[in-house]
Amino acid sequence: MKREKLFRKVLFEGEEHPGINIVCDTLHEGLRAEFRDYHNKRKRNAVLMNCDGSAYINFDKNPVEVYSPYIPYGVAIFMDFEENSMNCQEYDEIIYIQPFPFALDSVNRKLDDIDTVFCNHSGKTYKIMFYRDRNQHSGEGDLVRIDQALEEASERIRRKMGNTMAAKSMEFCVYRTPLDFVSILHGGCGNLGMSLLSCIEKFKSFRNKIEDFKGEWGEYRFILEEYDDLVDEVKINSLTRFNRVKGCANILEKYVRNYMDEFNGDIMRFVEEAYYESVKDICFWDLDRDIENLKNGVEKYIEQELRSLAVCKEKCPETEAEYNNLIRVKYKLDTNFEKKVKLLINNGLMNYMYDYLKRKEELLSRSVLSDLDRNTL
């Protein structure tokens, strides 16, 4: 199933030089030189996105696409290098880069525009990011002066803005290395791809969605109708015929193997679709990795449940008549296996996925609520 990554669009504005340095901070040495050379010739906007492996650049795109493991998953950072060519209204968050020594003249010119953005688009986040160039070599006295300047800068901006919507909502942050992206972009939510308040709102919806999952009209039941082959009696019975188990050392084990070989692909597709449809609108984590973990757990769960059907470890009899008399008539192992499969697909798998969602809720609670009063949810 094809899915698009759930990007939150963040616009970085401000002076060109620190913006270029920030892009280069996310690249290895060879790519830094390549990016600077390209930028000096073309000066095009850039967008920074996450990748799992080594950083790379697609210069054929406009804006230029920069991929780096330093960029948190779920966020697209747009760098405006073409003199305010980007429309602020298109972005979820706007971050204005202010380099040391934080003169604030350029920031002051933006304050009226910032307040207008907040009044017209209350859901947006605006931050002033004080950029501390790590290549600036300063003594200890200078470092104290920088820290003092940082503190005074934010206070001066708030006084300048007065009692406005922007002043109440604006945040301040400091950038020194790409490792600061986590706190700058995620508001203290670790590797989550949203600001803290956005995470909280989606987390509330997620809690409600969990209970809907097992409901009569939940996504599980609705999507299962398209996968009726998973509980088709004729297909399941074909797996337990003598010619499918002849010569095996353990009949039940062979049943399980036959079923997994025949249906595992469909089961995984069903699990992925049911889970994705349940969380796609409220997901604020790495969904692809999450689904892979779920599918690995589901496969082990199904095999374990089917093997627990009976303690029977009978080897397959040599003739079909003996097989039918002992396994089908006496033990009814084929009939019980069919019932077990139906129960597992119709209910057991749903319960497993529900429990998985509940564990996800507990995990996210620790991440999302770590900085907030739990009683607010």
Please render the helix and strand layout as text.
Blueprint: E1 8-14, H1 16-25, H2 29-42, E2 46-50, E3 56-58, E4 64-68, E5 75-79, E6 93-99, H3 105-120, E7 125-131, H4 140-161, H5 165-169, E8 171-175, H6 181-186, H7 196-213, H8 219-224, H9 233-238, H10 242-245, H11 251-279, H12 287-307, H13 320-330, H14 333-368
Helix pairs in contact: 1-2, 7-14, 11-12, 11-14, 12-14
By DSSP, the count of extended strands is 8
In terms of per-residue confidence, which ranges show pLDDT below 50 for 5 or more consecutive residues?
Answer: 137-144, 187-197, 370-377
The strands making up the biggest β-sheet line up spatially as 3-4-2-5-1-6-7-8
Sheet/helix structural class: alpha/beta
Alpha-carbon Rg, integer: 29 Å
Averaged pLDDT, please?
Answer: 78
The largest sheet, given as strand count, sense and whether it forms a barrel, is:
8 strands, mixed
Helical proportion, percent range: 40-55%
Shape: elongated
- Roughly what fraction of the amino acids lie in strands? 5-15%
Tally of contiguous helical segments? 14
Task: Pick out its properties.
377 residues, alpha/beta, eight-stranded mixed β-sheet, 14 helices, 8 strands, 12% strand, elongated
What does this structure look like?
The protein is an alpha/beta fold. It has helices at 16-25, 29-42, 105-120, 140-161, 165-169, 181-186, 196-213, 219-224, 233-238, 242-245, 251-279, 287-307, 320-330, 333-368, and strands spanning 8-14, 46-50, 56-58, 64-68, 75-79, 93-99, 125-131, 171-175. An 8-stranded mixed sheet has the order 3-4-2-5-1-6-7-8, with helices on both faces. Strand 6 (93-99), helix 3 (105-120) and strand 7 form a beta-alpha-beta unit. The longest helix is centred in the last third of the chain and has 36 residues, at 333-368. The protein is elongated, with a radius of gyration of 29 Å. The two termini are 34 Å apart.
